Amino acid sequence: MRVIPISANASLTLVDESSACASENGEVPRLDLPLTRRSLLRGSGVMMGTLAAGSPVSLLAPSTAWALELKSLSKSQGEVILKMGRALYPHKRLPDAVYALLVKDLDAKAAGDAATAKMLSEGVAALDQAAGGSFAKAPEKKRKELVKAMEGKEFFAAVRGQCITSLYDNDMAYKVFGYPGSAWEKGGYITRGFQDLKWLPAPPAKASPAPYLG
Amino acid sequence: MAKIDFNDDAAVVIIGSGAGGGTLANELCQKGIKVIVLEAGALQSPSTFINDEWKSFGQLAWLDTRTTSGTWRIAKDFAGLPAWICKTVGGSTTHWAGASIRFQEHEFKVRSHYGPLDGTSLMDWPLTLQELEPWYARAEDKLGVTRTNGIPGLPGNNNFKVMYAGARKLGYKEVHTGNMAINSQPRQDRGRCMQLGFCFQGCKSGAKWSTLYTELPAAGATGNLDLRPESHVVRIEHDDAGKVNAVVYHDKAGKQIRQKARVVCVAGNSIETPRLLLLSASNLFKDGLANSSGQVGRNYMRHMTGSVYAAFKEPVHMYRGTTMAGIIQDEAGHDPRRGFVGGYEMETLSLGVPFMAAFLDPGAWGEDFAWWMDHYAHMAGMWLVGEDMPRESNRVTLNDKVRDQYGNPVPNVHFDDHPNDVAMRNHAFAQGEKVYKAAAAIRTYRTPPYPSTHNLGTCRMGADKSASVCNRFGQTHDIANLFISDGSQFTTGGAENPTLTIVSLAIRQADYIARQMTARAI
Lengths: 214, 522
Known about the structure:
Oligomer: heterodimer
Low-confidence stretches of chain A: 1-24, 35-40
Structural class of chain A: alpha+beta
Strand content of chain B: 15-25%
Number of helices of chain B: 12
Distance between the termini of chain A: 44 Å
Mean pLDDT of chain B: 98
Shape of chain A: elongated
Strand order of the largest sheet of chain B: 4-11-12-13-10-16
Number of helices of chain A: 6
């Protein structure tokens, strides 16, 4: 596992455990759907969900069902964190499977570090307590208020920071937001629409000469 | 490729292989001078570059520990990452966007032109635009800069179309696809731009100039270059007479090696260059090498920067094509009626979804942030880059409390925005928003500065030895055979992206070093 801290307070830390790219050709494997059918029962809990059939994201997955095996967090803790991710970065078009990546990444950190496990566990308990029992079952508006009230705390910073890489750096998010990622293996955009915008006039050739296609 | 003995004391040792060091190496090798380049980073190639923002960042960026202080927002958002520069063969020429613009005449004499300004250390350069023009011309030819030497401009992408339409509506006149060191057509063994959209991640088509696959191989072909990747210099040594005579570095295996040298040129970018001089303090030079003025590490500049992103009703797909696809230059001049001295450039910029999430507004969350990410495909973006004010208190120092992998103090980068920087940023934000509103943006967003890519001025050149580190050729005032060969030697920053000027100074410095060697002056 390669860890690249880019912030001293560790609120934004990149964890790349999905094997780096093949260095001989720079190809990037993206296998980060939390889908696993093997050894489901060895960990601390399992979260499951379903991708809406026919949604753009479901086209990426071998199956519409997804499951995440947890190593440290319990299933109910995972659900609190998933809902907290949604309260922090509410994207109607992002399926729960993307927010489950947040749980997966935090769970991996908790499994590797007792202090992190404790901090997450206490943070989840605090959210549940503030919700009067179950944060996951509180109404959406209430969840947002409860998360807001945690701002400034270590737990909040850890979850929010992890969201940046967990939620926005995966194939499902790319698909939903309309970002195709790697372009070189498709020949770039020189013949694939880099200047296909039609709702504004094209600049004159002096400002923007025609592409060389020789 | 040459193999030079560790005890051979006849070679020029260059620390760093980026725009300054890589260019200088090639220029010296072409003149028949033996050169050793020590590069802290590993060797990559276009085939190993990665079209993935985080993975590429892990591959190319300088991630050794650094600390920050001061009131700049970077110290809060990216406390351990003051700069987004590279640790790899080719240095930050792997990462740069390719914008290659000459300084304006007045930017070499800002103290005379702008007058004194409280809280700044404004100083005139010890050279003029006229003196540098022939070197700029050579640099433009070397880099293959578009709109020079008969090279056509690049075709503008969708992001540029939006900028152009808004800028023209607003009345701006200097709007085009820029002067870019990216081949618009094949030239000098390099292909044309494929509009990959990953300029910052290392150009996989090799259309963008980088010393990695231009200067360094050309230098290697002369038989005079000994390029040593993964060689991290930790100390420069000197003899009893106070002349530098060796450098100490850690090789890939961590083994400490001493390489003798006739001349040492430091080109580690403006954080590591002063750090290395400070780390090399000795009984003779107690405050660090070349630091009798006390100016080593001071006057750290990082350009006034900021970005404006805008969302539109219709799609833009700004990620398609060159990252810096066009420029507005109407605000680049000096016009104090705007409420600040100096000027700024407006250049298109785009980030992928991963980096947009990280940089749009670090620390932000909630529905508004999510709204912007939801509109990613409908966004256009521009970067604002202008002259910031040199200040003695903005400086790189050694942080004795934090040690790096070799046990040395890490650099601390302290920066406080000058009121002029703030005024310029606010003006630039407002103008950027006007551009996009003129193109019918539904919303605009003011994005704070990214970790610094233009790090300048920590070993500035000057005519006055008591107020500067090196002379007009980058030769340090205190040690004749020790040179500053990167953006650290900039007296002031200008509004322009600095690489073309770094390259021009390196070509000129090579000429000077060769003459000094021939004359046995060094």
